[in-house]
Amino acid sequence: MTQIIVGGIEQQTVPSVPRVPRPRQRLQAPPAQAAPAAGRPVPAVTVVPPVLSPRRGTSTLATALDAALALALAGAAAALGQLSVLVAAAAAATWPVLLWTTGHYRRPGLGESRLTQPLRVLGTGLRAVVLALALSSLLVSVDTVDTVGLVTLLTVFSVASAVISMTGVGRSRPRVVLAGRPRDVREALAELRRTSGHEVVAACLTRSSKVSIGDLPTHLGFEATSAVAAHHRADALVVLPGARLTHAQVRRLHWSLAGVGTDLYLGTGLLDVEPQRTRVVSAAGVDMLHVTSPVLHGPRRLLKDVVERSLALVVLVALLPLLAFLCLAIRRESVGPALFRQERIGRHNVPFTMFKLRSMGVEAEDERSRLTAYDEGNGVLFKIQLDPRITPLGQWLRRYSLDELPQLWNVVRGDMSLVGPRPALPCEVARYDVDPQRRLVVKPGVTGLWQVSGRSDLSWDESVRLDLRYVDNWSLRLDLSILARTLQAVVGHRGAY
């Protein structure tokens, strides 16, 4: 096993060297050499590239734009006689400083929401309003209404600028260096590239690996981690679980990275745990990450149940004319009942009868066995994109998710929730492993993360992971977010077949 050498990390701060132009292409590994002798490890790229200048922690362009905006608005207010020149100049100078002190100009950190910057500006605007009100009460020369109006205009324009940056105009993806075991690096690389929100630029491996990591530049050991991060202009270094660094090594690594302007992130090994469920605690001098238990019972769950059942009843009554019309249309198109009843598995493995508008012929269940060879599902679910059993009207109903409207009655009865995991068939539950069983600790939902994230286009593993993420991280805010995204998913028809 290759020893991790970290003793000299604290000495890897950036030396005073001339600025080197950033290369236009990735570093290439050295030419392939002859195979090493038996028992000798396969070397990784060990040559540390020249260190470039560290990345800056603030956006000079954004600071200049906000300063120019504050100066222009304050100058206009002074020219129109709304504010005195002294007050206008003070406002123009104070606004960029307030934004800077609240961290508005810092590089976005890993995992930050795109709404972080606009919300931060709004918070700064509220603080500025409070400051303006306080000054107006102390200084007679300061007009309260005009000062608050100027602060409001500054906040609106700065929020608009942050929103433009949020949408991707001139926005660059965070550059990341991964550090850890080769297997962990490969898995993290695949996940980060799948989400496409980050750009992995290099990797530092604890040991050499015979398995390729693609065209990613790799370096053996952590002794030159800060130099690697500086050369690739990395925003962050992510130390993955399994790196086995001691407390002192992590501290030295932090010191080293601070000298090149790269943030340090330590992987916890947790999967799909929302930040609000975690907090860092210290006991006997040891820092630990505390993860709170999922909310499966209690007042918030009771509130969810009461609100959803009441809302489902109101919506169901309002949609009765539409449901009656659709039922008549289904009966006219094909022989058989308009409502389709099917047994599903609910909370704690309790079966219930789920209602849907019939979108197939009455003999659809009998014809399923002969269509097994055409199954395009995700390994557990049976799905055919061009299912011949679906009627023309049924295709339209599925496209707009109208066939699921009768499930509102299941919500009223208490069998289902408006938001929750996908309701499973008994044959599917019989094939469940340990992880999928976790879906059954809460009620299934009419909609959920599985619906707003792709529905039938998802693989089985992705579907399970989304449902488990919902179960473990449930909150009323998450439910509201899913309900808002459901409308977009229905209109977009993604995965609806």
Automatic annotation (TrEMBL):
<dbReference type="GO" id="GO:0016780">
    <property type="term" value="F:phosphotransferase activity, for other substituted phosphate groups"/>
</dbReference>
<feature type="transmembrane region" description="Helical">
    <location>
        <begin position="121"/>
        <end position="142"/>
    </location>
</feature>
<feature type="transmembrane region" description="Helical">
    <location>
        <begin position="310"/>
        <end position="331"/>
    </location>
</feature>
<dbReference type="Pfam" id="PF02397">
    <property type="entry name" value="Bac_transf"/>
</dbReference>
<dbReference type="InterPro" id="IPR017475">
    <property type="entry name" value="EPS_sugar_tfrase"/>
</dbReference>
<dbReference type="InterPro" id="IPR003362">
    <property type="entry name" value="Bact_transf"/>
</dbReference>
<protein>
    <submittedName>
        <fullName>Exopolysaccharide biosynthesis polyprenyl glycosylphosphotransferase</fullName>
    </submittedName>
</protein>
<feature type="domain" description="Bacterial sugar transferase">
    <location>
        <begin position="304"/>
        <end position="491"/>
    </location>
</feature>
<feature type="transmembrane region" description="Helical">
    <location>
        <begin position="148"/>
        <end position="169"/>
    </location>
</feature>
<feature type="region of interest" description="Disordered">
    <location>
        <begin position="15"/>
        <end position="40"/>
    </location>
</feature>
<keyword id="KW-0808">Transferase</keyword>
<keyword id="KW-0812">Transmembrane</keyword>
<dbReference type="GO" id="GO:0016020">
    <property type="term" value="C:membrane"/>
</dbReference>
<comment type="similarity">
    <text>Belongs to the bacterial sugar transferase family.</text>
</comment>
<feature type="transmembrane region" description="Helical">
    <location>
        <begin position="67"/>
        <end position="100"/>
    </location>
</feature>
<feature type="compositionally biased region" description="Low complexity">
    <location>
        <begin position="26"/>
        <end position="40"/>
    </location>
</feature>
<keyword id="KW-0472">Membrane</keyword>
<keyword id="KW-1133">Transmembrane helix</keyword>
